Amino acid sequence: MTHSFTGAGVALITPFSEDKSIDYSALERLIEDQISGGIDYLVVLGTTAETPALSEDEKKEIVRFVIEKNAGRLKIVVGMGGNNTSALVQSIQNANFDGVDAILSVTPYYSKPTQEGLFQHFKLVVEASPVPVILYNVPGRTGVNMDADTTLRIASLSEKVVAIKEASGDLGQFAKIISNAPAYFKVISGDDGLTLPSIAMGSIGVISVITNALPAKLSQLTHASLEGNMALSGKLHLQMAEMLKLIFREGNPGGVKALMEMMGKAKNQLRLPLVSVSASTWLAIEAEWKKIRNNENAMK
């Protein structure tokens, strides 16, 4: 049976206008672009959405807007995490989950809890959530790595814990989780560049950043990998490898927003403390985009 979150998920950006207000027209176009590009599910209010820079009212409106515009076509995952466990639990208990298929909950950041602290935190999150929970391990941002044993311990709490977005970059950690997880619990890559190798090891796909700009290409890569078409997936991986390095050179989502402005998909606007990429990175992304576009045209 196919897992509910098999394939390519997109960590949606939050498009902003020049005055830094949310550009809902661009967000609607983005949703349609993802659906037509073959993406399997939408992730709202993740890292890529610049969620810490959004007000509570803005967060609620974005979720409501995405649910409305999606109109039931794709599954929707909403980011709900924090480093104040009791406040997070209360937020989950008070949230409206109509139209929401799962939550994505990041390991507590800044506080640097122990592995036992991580387990106790997620135990309460799982108990509070009325929908499936996808764990999110991203030590490069949070300052703490949730090791494989802790992940497996949390997974064993309930079949409600359906997956982990694993962004440690440690393929040994991927392997240990995949090898020992209960049947209902799966690994999803949190790194675009590890989509192919992680699927080869047994992950079920990726929650991706580059899909905001190139949904069809990343979707094709993911699905070819899942189908065992290594020739095609390897080719697509190589085509995207340099761009994947470049869009993360100065952090996320600065790189992908620069690319999306070049493509006419969204404005290159971020909210502080994030700023646009430097001129040198902009030029590098632009040159690589022209190369990708020229290769696509040559293949037509």
Rg value:
18 Å
CATH architecture: Alpha-Beta Barrel
As a percent range, the share of strand residues is: 5-15%
The CATH superfamily is identified as Aldolase class I
The dominant shape is: globular
What series of H and E elements makes up the topology?
A: EHEHEHEHEHHEHEHEHHHH
β-strand number: 8
How are the strands ordered across the major sheet? 7-6-5-4-3-2-1-8
CATH class equals Alpha Beta
Spans of at least 5 consecutive residues with low confidence: none
CATH fold-type name: TIM Barrel
What topology emerges from the helices and strands here?
Layout: E1 7-11, H1 24-36, E2 41-44, H2 56-70, E3 75-79, H3 85-94, E4 102-106, H4 115-128, E5 133-137, H5 139-142, H6 148-155, E6 161-166, H7 171-180, E7 186-189, H8 195-201, E8 205-208, H9 215-226, H10 230-247, H11 254-262, H12 279-299
Parallel strand pairs: 1-2, 1-8, 2-3, 3-4, 4-5, 5-6, 6-7
How would you describe this structure to a colleague?
- The chain has 300 residues and is an alpha/beta fold.
- The protein has one domain: TIM Barrel (Alpha-Beta Barrel).
- It has helices spanning 24-36, 56-70, 85-94, 115-128, 139-142, 148-155, 171-180, 195-201, 215-226, 230-247, 254-262, 279-299; strands spanning 7-11, 41-44, 75-79, 102-106, 133-137, 161-166, 186-189, 205-208.
- The chain has an 8-stranded parallel sheet.
- Helix 1 packs across helix 2, helix 3 packs parallel to helix 4 and helix 6 packs parallel to helix 7.
- The longest helix has 21 residues, at 279-299.
- The two termini are 36 Å apart.
- 45% of the residues are buried.
- The model has no long low-confidence stretch (mean pLDDT 96).
